[in-house]
């Protein structure tokens, strides 16, 4: 006794309008300014151990290897794009771009 599977209903494929080409000579980043990215600042902490990490509590201060006048690397999605310095604006900490790569 064989049980044949019924033939599925075949539907036509959906059609979509053609993709808009990127203008020649245009920068890909200029065509997608809405894409999210992650900005990060690197503050090196030398001679920091797991033991030091385990001792951290609320209010702990971690000394960095940066002098307060040192520029700090700025990365976008882990790619170095420039250097910054810290600024205080009102109650907020901000960074000023000092150099671009």
Automatic annotation (TrEMBL):
Family matches, as Pfam families: FliMN_C (PF01052)
Keyword match Cell inner membrane: no
Domain Flagellar motor switch protein FliN-like C-terminal, chain residue ranges per copy: 36-100
Keywords: Cell projection, Cilium, Flagellum
InterPro entries, per database record: FliN-like_C, SpoA-like_sf
Region Disordered: start-end pairs: 1-24
Top-rank taxon: Bacteria
Name under which the protein is recorded: Flagellar motor switch/type III secretory pathway protein FliN
């Amino acid at each position: 006794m064989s049980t044949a599977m019924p033939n599925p209903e075949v539907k036509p494929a959906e059609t979509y309008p053609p993709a808009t080409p990127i203008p020649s000579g245009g920068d890909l980043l200029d065509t997608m300014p809405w894409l999210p990215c992650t900005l990060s600042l690197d503050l090196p902490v030398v001679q920091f151990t797991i033991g030091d990490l385990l001792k951290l509590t609320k209010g702990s201060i971690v000394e960095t290897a940066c002098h307060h006048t040192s520029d700090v690397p700025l990365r976008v999605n882990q790619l170095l794009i420039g250097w910054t310095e810290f600024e205080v604006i009102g109650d907020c900490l901000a960074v000023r771009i000092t150099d671009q790569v």
